[in-house]
Amino acid sequence: MSNKFADDTISTARLISFSDGVFAIAVTLLVFNLKVPQIPAANVHLLLPGLITAMLPHFTTYVLSFLLIAVYWTFHHRMLNLVTRLNTPFLWMNICYLLVIAFIPFPTALFGAYPHETFSFVFYIASMILVGSLSMLMLWYASHNYRLISKELPMAIVKYLFFRQFTAIFIFLLAIPLALYQLRWAQYYLFILFPVHWGTQKYFRKRSIS
Predict the structure, then answer these.
(1) Start-end of H helices in the chain
(2) Which of 144, 150, 194, 209 is the most core-located residue (most Cβ within 10 A)?
């Protein structure tokens, strides 16, 4: 009987289940940042359109954060599908990753509440960069020397996932100087991330079959 301590007492299926729960809670909490305006009944007809229009930054940030969490979820799901075994360092990396995912509703609420403050936007961007950095760290750790993945796995898949996160971080970094010039443009610029991800996927898929 081996006396070696086993790190893999948690299955990948259970890790995925736990992680999915945290992602689900994070996207659900986003909507709680959207507060229905409280208006006296006599003034609803007069004030409601203007108050809803004033909430546009909240709506935009909500949609952006929801889509970004969805992007991070798809990355996380694909990465864990590649992992065939677990160890303690990877488990704790995953916990730190989920810690930041669960935190995203706060910078979302902060930027929604202060849409004209550059600091709130940079704080939001920094949170997203942290998620992307942890994603790359987890992927590198799992794939380095095939530590937690199968040696039969094509490295092109790992390269695709790694490049996808690198691209996201690069786009986030470019948003910071743009925000110093025009904050509103910087926010809408972030939506370019989604067609870039789509184009990256198409490119790597085409290369894999050529």
Answers:
(1) 12-31, 44-54, 56-82, 88-103, 105-113, 118-143, 155-181, 183-189, 193-209
(2) 194
